[in-house]
Amino acid sequence: MPPSRSHIHSTIEAYLARHPGERAGLGTLLAALGRPADPASRTALPGHITCSAIVIDDTGRVLHIHHRAGGKVLTPSGHNEPGDNTLAAAALRALHEEAGIPPGAVAPWPGLGGLPLDIGVLEIDAHPATSTLAHHHYDLRFCFRLRHVDAAIALQAEAVCEREWRPIDRVAAPTLRDKLLKLGTAAPAGEPVNASALIYNDQGQYLLHLRDHLPGVIWEPGAWSLLGGGREPQDRTLEETVRRELREEAGLHVPVLRPFAVEEARGSDGTTIPIAVYAGRWNGNPADLTLTEGVMLHWFAPDVLPRLRISSSTRDLVYRHAASGPEGDHEAVRSDTPREAEPPGSCRPPASPPAAAPSGTVLNVVGVHLYLEDSDSRVLLGLRHPDSAYAASMYHFLAGHCEQEAALACLVREAQEEAGLRIEPGDVELAHVVHLVDTPGDRPRMQLVFRARHWEGTPEVREPDKCTSWSFWHPDELPVQTVAYTRAAIEGIRAQRLYTEMGWA
């Protein structure tokens, strides 16, 4: 499945949030995002998206490939293909195809958060022999560091003839060169350049961070993870990195942090990142912290982890730490099982984590959505904030994830919290269900769409960090930037269908 339109849109908007001065220069790219044609398809005209891999070795040089056609010297680059579930994955596939470097031999550059380092607009000449018209390439340039200096580079013989490692000041693209020069020198291959904090309290619980759901833009999108991030030039040590990240992400200070492990985290695109993990005790309330990234912070006992969307490496890390009895002064406790009284001074190892779901079982995320029509049969949609965790700058139902609650209770709560609407459960009926996989390998989602026959109140913006406006739209005149499954659900309701599947092979 190729990169979704929402993934492309959120990636570019997140990039422009870092480089607002480039918005005007990328006007043709933004215009392409608004057209019906897939902007990542090589057939889209007058231009389409390509993806490049900017690979830097341990001496700070950048990989270039000499192409047989036209004698051009370029960084590995290519069009998006159906199997590329993210834009970064397209860049990594081009790197593998043109230079023979597998995704596991490189790591995303720290501090970029999965975003391109640069976006260039390239003019491509017409090629009459292949009936190719003149067009533009909107080249998204993703930066990686070479983790294995002995990584074999097997050139694609029919297309390229030579490789070259160029100093950064000889990179041809001016905007890319300027940004590379600001990155500083690369860290030695194989050394951790990321650090995370494994924070626990006296009850044996662990502090986890729910990340924004931005597939392809951030690491482990929509999952519970540890706080932390990439090393920056001013960080003298990785402990300084993790302390800075705790301060910046949550305003959190942990007095004592001790090295616990170095973990290899693997992303869905095949890249790996060595992460230095520091453990520390904190007994505060996450609700008192000021979170600047992600969705929320919460304490979890180890036995709850199999019920969460969390990477196996993070889950196993917590289990190992709990089993080790951190510093010998606490033991992990189960959240739902009474403990037997124990003699003073006794030391019982923490309970074993509960058995995982049967092999092959994948737990689905359940979402609830409000289908609300006014007297003119127009449907209520909200314009998502540009920095929203999901569907940034797109129109979407009033919606939310089911927590430890019934679906109708969730809908009533979300309607009040997000838009100030009062709805009685008895005035609601199930109108449509969308069983969705946004990108291959992503967690499946069961999206329940409920129609409210009666409600009280006028939609108002209650959560401006998620939604900037509410408005009613006729189903025949939905805005172009409507979330795909929202549009599909509206079409299904109008056709009196109850069920739609999307994203399944």
Secondary-structure content class = alpha+beta
* Average pLDDT rating: 81
Largest sheet: 5 strands, mixed
Portion in beta strands: 25-35%
Helix content: 10-25%
Number of strands: 23
Poorly predicted tracts of residues: 185-190, 326-357
Give the distance, in angstroms, between the N- and C-terminal Cα atoms.
8 Å
Cα-atom radius of gyration = 25 Å
Shape: globular
| Count of alpha/pi helices | 8
Question: Could you characterize what this model shows?
Answer:
It is globular, with a radius of gyration of 25 Å. The chain is of the alpha+beta class and 505 residues long. 18% of the residues lie in helices and 28% in strands. It is built from 8 helices and 23 strands.
Which short descriptors sum up this protein?
505 residues, globular, single chain, alpha+beta, 8 helices, 23 strands
What is the compact description of this entry?
The chain has helices at residues 5-18, 27-33, 87-99, 174-183, 238-250, 312-323, 407-419, 484-494, and strands at 47-56, 61-67, 73-74, 77-79, 106-108, 118-124, 135-146, 160-167, 194-200, 206-210, 224-225, 227-230, 258-266, 272-281, 296-300, 365-371, 379-384, 395-396, 398-401, 428-436, 445-452, 467-473, 499-502. The protein is an alpha+beta fold and 505 residues long.
